[in-house]
């Protein structure tokens, strides 16, 4: 038992499990089409006999990703270390919330039940999920969650973004690039992602540097690519998705580069979106 185990009432007067809210994990694997790992609830659980997510109560010290991974490992033999968190979808009931963490796994390994709450766990083709007898709340959410089974790669035109704010970047381009890198690395989930239908994204981040900013190193969670020549050429090359469940979002205000990236299959947004995310992160 943790300090989150227990009942709570939301502002609408409904009773929910989880004193600090609850979280569930929606893992998927491309094999080659997406398969979803679902839990069949035991008869001793709420909604017994229905299929839904591995999950449960959040504890006060946990963020939603930590809670979802812990609950999944308690209720099944899924190894949480192989799950890459990609998206978070929140249902806010006022005073109580349920967070769904969408993550990818590299292989569709065998997973078995590991607690009395799980009657069974199974990998189900995504296009067959709706045919199961689903837990009602998950059935409603699945229409939205099913559109988020992909990884976002964020490709940042560093020179263009630096040029969009007057912070003295022209006096020390490398230092300004390192500052931008560290600010981006500190963001704990990006909201308002163009084209996204859920609340937060945990993308793979790639910064492209050129000229005097070459030599900037990577940090945890942020890859840095030094363009051997034109930064625009390198960014255009990186704009093309590399996997069936991958989409790329390029951050630049350069109109010509925007057209090249869109032709390669990427979505493009301006520096303002990224700078606003940095601003919110710094003020949090």
UniProtKB/TrEMBL annotation:
Transmembrane segments: none annotated. This is NUDIX domain-containing protein. InterPro entries: NUDIX_hydrolase-like_dom_sf, NUDIX_hydrolase_CS, NUDIX_hydrolase_dom. Its cofactor is Mg(2+). Residues 18-151 form the Nudix hydrolase domain. It comes from the Bacteria. It holds the Pfam family NUDIX.
């Amino acid at each position: 038992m943790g300090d989150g185990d227990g009942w709570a009432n939301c502002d609408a007067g409904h009773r929910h499990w989880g004193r600090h809210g609850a979280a569930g994990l929606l893992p998927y694997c491309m094999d080659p089409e997406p398969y979803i790992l679902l839990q069949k609830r035991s008869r001793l659980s709420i909604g017994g006999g229905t299929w839904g997510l591995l999950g449960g109560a959040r504890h006060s010290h946990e963020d939603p990703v930590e809670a979802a991974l812990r609950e999944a490992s308690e209720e099944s033999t899924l190894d949480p270390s192989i799950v890459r968190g990609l998206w978070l979808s929140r249902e806010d009931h006022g005073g109580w919330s349920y967070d769904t963490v969408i993550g990818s796994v590299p292989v569709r390994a065998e997973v078995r039940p590991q607690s009395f709450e799980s009657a069974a766990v199974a990998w189900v083709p995504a296009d067959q999920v709706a045919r199961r007898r689903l837990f009602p709340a998950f059935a409603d959410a699945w229409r939205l969650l099913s559109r988020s089974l992909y990884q976002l790669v964020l490709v940042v035109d560093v020179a263009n973004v630096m040029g969009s704010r007057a912070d003295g970047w022209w006096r020390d381009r490398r230092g300004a690039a390192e500052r931008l890198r560290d600010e981006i690395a500190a963001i704990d989930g990006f909201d308002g992602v163009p084209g996204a239908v859920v609340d937060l994204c945990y993308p793979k981040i790639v910064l492209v540097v050129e000229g005097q900013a070459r030599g900037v190193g990577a940090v945890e969670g942020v890859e840095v690519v030094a363009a051997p020549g034109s930064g625009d050429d390198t960014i255009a090359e990186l704009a093309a998705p590399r996997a069936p469940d991958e989409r790329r979002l390029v951050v630049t205000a350069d109109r010509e580069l925007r057209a090249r990236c869109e032709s390669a299959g990427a979505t493009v947004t301006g520096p303002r979106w990224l700078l606003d995310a940095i601003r919110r992160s710094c003020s949090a």
